[in-house]
Amino acid sequence: MSFTGPSMSSGGSAARKAVNFGRTYVVRPKGKHQATVVWLHGLGDNGSSWSQLLETLPLPNIKWICPTSPTRPVSIFGGFPSTAWFDVGDFSENAADDLEGLDASAAHVANLLSTEPADIKLGVGGFSMGAATALYSASCCALGKYGNGSPYPAKISTVVGLSGWLPCSKTLKSKLEVENEAVTRAASLPILLCHGTSDDVVPYKFGEKSSVTLKSAGFQNVTFKSYSGLGHFTIPEEMDQVCSWLSSNLGLDGSS
Question: Which segments constitute the Phospholipase/carboxylesterase/thioesterase domain (predicted)?
């Protein structure tokens, strides 16, 4: 469904170009609307495929918003255009982060959530590169600002990342430690990470390390689930875990 790796800066020449996002697909709740979750696809994919899967889940109280990322030149494809939330250059853990692309995508997520009613709980999740963008959004939510320093407006209640990794992991702890409010927000934000041990695209160690980094940075409510033999895709067992975790953390149990 997608192909992804740690990101690389896309360079400064395109710094102020407009970012054009693709089509957004919405799965409306079949029952009482209690939560809205923005779900982000992986590299080379679009919002449609995930909307079709999410529509089948037994979560009648969730509204799913499945946007499509911009189509942009992707470094790991030799500059060939692909749908991508940010530029991807290298599988090395030492690769630079495309902060501009991450900020733009995190802002798009926040904007999609901005029109939801005040009593609706908000979440963000994703697969692969979408998971990385979701975790970056979680960092922005805790810090109260984007990487460029602009205020982050959304109040996220839950975050889910499947087969992904944590961008900007090396600086997260030091940024959180200087603000008491950020520490408080991080400590109270539930995060679910799932990763297959046989993932040949985003190695399992990236998912595992992301969990450790989040916890050490102050995100105290992090759940990490490993799936033996699972590659870079999802399976019903994993989606069952997502359903039960979301129901519990969004207070949807027993609701109709």
Answer: 25-248
Which helix H or strand E contains 72, and what residues bound it? strand 71-73
- Give 80-85 contacts, CB < 8 A, sequence gap 24+: 82/43, 82/44, 83/22, 83/41, 83/43, 83/44, 83/45, 83/46, 84/43, 84/44, 84/129, 85/40, 85/43, 85/129, 85/130, 85/132, 85/133
Average pLDDT over residues 136-146: 97
> How far separated are the first and last CA of the chain, in Å rounded?
32
CA dihedral 80, 101, 92, 144 (to 10 degrees): -170
Active site residues: 128, 199, 232
Q: How many helices (H) and strands (E) does the chain have?
A: 7, 9
Angle between helices 169-177 and 129-143 (to 10 degrees): 10
Tens of pLDDT, residue by residue over 173-186, are 999 988 889 999 99
